[in-house]
Amino acid sequence: MNSALILLLLLSVSGLPLLLAMALMLGSLRRVILLLAPWAALPALVGSVLLTPGITIELPWLLFGTRLGLDETARVFLFFTSLLWLVAGIYSAGYFSKHSSRARFFIWFLLAMAGNLGLILAQDMVIFYTFFTLMSFASYGLVVHDHTLDAWRAGRIYIVMVVVGEVLLFAAFVLAARASNSIEFEVVRLAMVDAELRDWIIGLTLLGFGIKAGVIGLHVWLPLAHPVAPTPASAVLSGAMIAAGLLGWLRILPLGETVLSAWGGAMIVAGMVATFYAVFVGLSQNNAKTVLAYSSVSTMGIMTIAVGLGFVAPDNWPFILSAILIYALQHSLAKGALFLGVGMAVTPSASIVQRYLLIMGLLLPALSLAGAPLTSGMIAKHLLNIQLASVTSPWGDWVQILMPWSAVATSMLMVRFLILVCPQYKVKSGAVSKSRMMWLSWLILIVAVVSSPWLIPFADRTTGSTINMWSMKIMISAIWPVAMGGSLAIVAWLVSKYRRSHYWIRIPPGDILIIVEKWLWPLLLSVLLYSYTALGRGYSSVLTHMNWWHDYSAWMSVLDVCESRFARWSIGALLFLILAMIFVFLARLNIL
Q1: Is pLDDT above 50 for 466?
Q2: Which terminus has fewer CB within 10 Å in the chain: N or C?
Q3: Is residue 438, in this structure, part of any structural domain at all?
Q4: What is the rounded average pLDDT of the residues 158-186?
Q5: Alpha helices, DSSP H only, in 144-260?
Q6: Dihedrals φ, ψ of 591, to 5°?
């Protein structure tokens, strides 16, 4: 392919959605832009298919000399990410066809898309951080789009987590750049092996990207943000943007370079806890989108385990990476299909055909997430199990034992999800049919989920062949966890329904956050009040403190009003541009 065409295609990956968003902000040709906006991810999808890995371009005029490129990892991420953004964009055209907020939604949608696609091509830390920040802050507009009380609360928690994550990542990137005297990922990874502050860099990177990836303890924004966001926004938040945190780990961490048993063990433990804890909490939820959010936390737990194995067994890293890429692929497509399916099932079906399409369209991606036979989920688990068997560390044995049970847990969660959506399957004569754009985009994604094992060229590098993946032994090992998990979930549901059981545990969405809000924060205030009294300040000081608390509550109401103002795209976009200009100015002066 001509070098000029390659350059144009790479620049249009994030440049086209960014230009369309700016055009919508200015209000010029809004009707035409709204027709083009759903297709903004098409150049990225074309590039992921046509461009060969190994392509790199340098833009010395941008920031510190930006490098964009496409390696094997970026190609897989770009493929499933652009496909999901494209499908969600087409879905949005039908979803918001009669909404006055259509333009406002697409502004945030396009900005988040530009950041998400741009960070995949980034080959240095500066441009990666810039795009990652754009994606993170623009997603706030998607979370609070409906302007409900729940949306404002979820948006507030989300933006706090984002700011904390950005600060952690900025510190990690500065330390990594100083340790390697470079901002290129390849140089940074090699330099981190012997870096003096290696543990600090790794810790900050794990926490910073862990917020976006939904690592246990940092996941609290996911079950709050996904249910309140519009359906197409939920699909990309859980299917595409959550994978950006995983990609950040793959880019920065010295995986495959050296043995780091302590960090590997910590990640494996965190991943195992997330895998089962998220399922336990998800089973107690009554909202289908909240169940899917906890499913994402559980799946990211498995990916966290895989990254931890890369620290424990660096020689196996190329093979572990293959399993991670397939896991990320199948999770993104399947989870996106399920979220869009919830939007399709909100209203009763207009015909029997639509009813069965809904059932099959939700069942197939659910089976893929559970790892059923002939799905990409089964293939990813098979590849990971092969690597677990070859790991000499005790961690490999423990994870190999727990992996089948993770499939049992995921199957139970998928059954819970289907039960929650099931009452909406009914056919209602005279029901309003969904938009054709919504049906078309959703069915395209279902086809992609079904054909995902053949979408990405892959091979079992241990045996040198993919034929063994379809053997009867592997099929049976994939069937029993799904069958057991589904059976247990159905039995539990029947008991709770017909026995009128009152022992079903209900955990509010946000789980750990609720504990902090209702118990730890009041406890901390009580300790502060007691401290004032114990120090001899008397009850008057306590009353003064209480008056201060009322003033604080009044200030919080003022902040709520300010937050609603900042959610307007014009103010938010202007503030983001000002911050970006300050960052570039300070960077040019070598202050940062």
Answers
A1: no
A2: N
A3: no
A4: 90
A5: 149-180, 185-191, 198-213, 222-228, 231-236, 242-252
A6: -80, -35
Place of tokens 């900005």: 111
> Is 302:214 a contact under the CB 8 Å cutoff?
no
d(CA 132, CA 120) in angstroms, rounded, equals 9
131 and 123 in contact (C-beta within 8 Å)?
A: no
How many angstroms separate the CA atoms of 195 and 191, rounded? 6
Please give the mean pLDDT across all residues of the chain: 80
Residue 67 DSSP SS3: strand
| 453 lies in some domain | no
The answer, yes or no, to whether residue 485 has pLDDT greater than 80, is yes
Contacts of 100 (CB under 8 A, 6+ apart): none
422-427-428 Cα angle (round to 5): 125
Which is more confident, 137 or 502? 137
DSSP 8-state symbol, 536: I
Q: How far apart (Å, rounded) are the C-alpha atoms in residues 333 and 339?
A: 10
- For residues 82 and 41, the answer to whether their CB atoms sit within 8 Å is yes
pLDDT at 468 over 70: no
Q: How does pLDDT run across 105-114, given as a tens digit for each residue? A: 999 999 999 9
pLDDT at 336 over 90: yes
544 part of a folded domain: yes
* 578 is a domain residue: yes
Q: How confident is the model over 370-429, as pLDDT tens digits?
A: 888 888 888 888 878 877 777 767 777 777 788 888 889 999 999 999 988 875 555 555
Beta partners for 59?
Answer: 66
Q: Kindly list the distances between the CA atom of residue 339 and the CA atoms of 348, 366, 453, 566, in Å, as whole numbers in the listed order.
A: 17, 11, 21, 28
Q: Determine the average pLDDT of the residues in 423-452.
A: 75
Cα–Cα distance measured from residue 116 to residue 45, given in angstroms and rounded to the nearest whole number: 13
- Nearest 5°: the CA angle 417, 267, 478 is 45
Domain span including residue 557: 530-588
Q: What tokens were used for 113?
A: 């898309």
- Is-contact 385 403, C-beta < 8 A? yes
158 membership: H or E segment, kind and range: helix 149-180
pLDDT of residue 464: 42
How far is residue 411 from each of residues 107, 277, 352, 372, 472, measured CA to CA in Å? 37, 14, 27, 9, 21
**CA dist., res. 105 & res. 461, Å (int):** 44
Q: What distance in Å separates the CA atoms of residue 483 and residue 466, rounded to the nearest whole number?
A: 25
Q: What is the pLDDT of residue 450?
A: 87
Number of domains in the chain: 1
pTM of the shown model: 0.85
Measure the CA angle with vertex 313, ends 200 and 405; round to 5°: 100
> Which residue type does 121 have?
L
If DSSP codes are grouped into helix, strand and coil, which group holds residue 578?
Answer: helix
